């Protein structure tokens, strides 16, 4: 690993470590536009419309009104809720893995600067990075699942249409397409 690569890696690691604490606070609301997780509910945002709130039981509130839903709609709403929580979980895992990699990369950079053999530490960082990449890939799969599910909900429940804002472009960008 070149000294220039190590310098870049150390800088990236420091930036990651300073940003990582926000991922560790699972009790705080995590804003993930166009939706966020707040307490036990998923809150879905739409332009010029009140938020839609989906409960773990598949209840749907829009504004101050609880909507009556069919068993199929409830099943879709519960799946949407679960998919958003999976997305959040994978985002936390990726952030924590990034912080772990950053800490190890800082140590690796310091060892390299001191002239120590860093080949094993470098292999460890690369192995952890591959694991983190796999978790990050899962985030994209979660986002695709959310998009398909929100589309199905909007087809079954037209009132949900303004909240079905994720597009194929969104999921494609996540997957690097």
How would you describe this protein?
The chain has helices at residues 3-19, 21-24, 71-113, 119-156, 168-174; strands spanning 30-32, 35-38, 41-46, 49-54, 60-62, 65-67. Strand 3 and strand 4 (49-54) form a beta hairpin. The protein is an alpha+beta fold. The protein has one domain. 62% of the residues lie in helices and 14% in strands. Strands 1-2-3-4-5-6 form a 6-stranded antiparallel sheet, with helices on one face.
Entry summary:
With 177 residues, the protein is of the alpha+beta class. 62% of the residues lie in helices and 14% in strands.
Which labels suit this protein?
alpha+beta, 62% helix, single chain, 177 residues, 6 strands
Write the layout of secondary structure elements.
Elements (H helix, E strand, L loop, with lengths): L2 H17 L1 H4 L5 E3 L2 E4 L2 E6 L2 E6 L5 E3 L2 E3 L3 H43 L5 H38 L11 H7 L3
Antiparallel strand pairs: 1-2, 2-3, 3-4, 4-5, 5-6
Helix content percent band: 55-70%
The secondary structure category is alpha+beta
Number of strands: 6
Question: For the report, how would you describe the main beta sheet?
Answer: 6 strands, antiparallel
How many helices? The count is: 5
The largest sheet has its strands arranged as 1-2-3-4-5-6
Q: Rg to the nearest angstrom?
A: 20 Å
Globally, the shape reads: elongated
Strand content: 5-15%
**What count of domains describes the coordinates?**
1
Q: Regions with pLDDT < 50 over 5+ consecutive residues?
A: 1-32
Please write the string of helix (H) and strand (E) elements: HHEEEEEEHHH
Distance between the termini: 30 Å
The average pLDDT score comes to: 79
